[in-house]
Each structure stands twice: as C-alpha cells, then as structure tokens.
TrEMBL record:
This is DNA-3-methyladenine glycosylase I. It comes from Arthrobacter alpinus. Zn(2+) binds at C9, H24, H176, C180. SUPFAM superfamilies: DNA-glycosylase (SSF48150). Keywords: Metal-binding, Zinc.
Length: 189
C-alpha cells in the first residue's frame, strides 16, 4: 500500500517514482482512441523494447516534440535530415532501427487500405479477459496475430510483446493486478 492508502499494481512502485504512479493511476489501461494517439502508444512501446518503461515515460515529452506530437502525416514526411536530427537528439532514445521503424510505421499507417485503421486492427485482435488473479502474459495468441497483421501491412518493430504492451496501455485488456484499486475497472474498459 502506498502513502495515499491505495493498493496499486507492483510495477509503478518498483521505481518509487511519482511520474510512474501518476501514469498508472490516470492513463495505463484506460481507453485510447484516435489514430495519432494509437500511433504514439505503438511508437513508444516500440522504443521501450529492451528498456524500462520509466525510461520512455521520462522522455515522453521529448519524444512528442521530436516526432511532431506523433502526427502520422507529419512523421511520414520525415526525410534524411529529420533522421539525422533524431539521431543527434540526446533527449530521446537514439536507436536507428526504432527511429526508422517509427517513420516507416507512420507511412504504413497512412497507406492502410480504405476502411482499415490502426484502431480497427487492434479491435479485431482483442484477447479474452483473464481470470482474476491470473498473471498478465508477455503476449497472447491475439497479440501475435496483431503483430503479424501489422507487419503484413508494412509496420516494423511490432512483435507480439510490443503489441500486447500496447493493448495493456490503451485499455484493450485490463491487466491491473487483482488487488489494485483500478482492477475493477473504475473507468470504462
């Protein structure tokens, strides 16, 4: 139990960081709509791969500034000069593959066939709810299928674990621990 008397999932308490707890309490697992918002979450989850989430969370505003608030139309227009600018920006994670993937994913998002959106793709791959107390998986058959569908449509750096982490972050699944004050879904899920 934290100082405010609330029981939370274990992960935001690991760092004993107010930013982490605020993210858990006000954002993680809550519904996200809008292609730019979904694109941001997918991009940040890809950047997180191999790093701790708190590292990305602390750099989030810098990522937003560097990637034009994750506006897919603007990011899709990034060229070699933008790539070099990003590679020289110490306020973000400077990983060639992840930066290229983010730019390419913006282009893939804009090239989706008529009637298909990132939101609709995610909705088509929603996992079944887990039983109370069952540990959260790293990935599911649905996240594997989503990653495969995204890759087929030209997206990169979107493996099953990244896809599932995004599903958790945007409220597609409710993976709050059973004793967490948000486990009951105090917000629409």
């Amino acid at each position: 139990m934290s100082a405010d008397g609330k029981i939370r999932c274990a992960w935001p308490g690991l760092e004993n960081d107010e930013l982490y707890q605020r993210y858990h309490d006000t954002e993680w697992g809550r519904p996200v709509t809008g292609e730019a918002e979904l694109f941001e979450r997918l991009s940040l989850e890809a950047f997180q791969s191999g790093l701790s989430w708190i590292t990305i969370l602390r750099k989030r505003e810098s990522f937003r500034a560097a990637f034009s608030n994750f506006d897919p139309e603007k990011v899709a227009e990034f060229g070699p000069e933008d790539f070099e600018r990003l590679m020289n920006d110490a306020s973000i994670v400077r990983n060639r593959l992840k930066i290229n993937a983010t730019i390419g994913n913006a282009r893939a998002l804009l090239a989706l066939p008529d009637g298909i959106t990132l939101g609709s793709l995610i909705a088509q791959h929603t996992p079944a709810a887990r039983a109370a107390g069952e540990p959260a998986p790293a990935h599911t058959p649905e996240s594997k299928a989503l990653a495969k569908a995204l890759k087929k449509l030209g997206f990169a750096f979107v493996g099953p674990t990244t896809a599932y982490a995004m599903m958790q972050a945007i409220g597609v699944v409710n993976d709050h621990q059973h004793d967490c004050w948000l486990a009951g879904g105090t917000e629409p899920r």
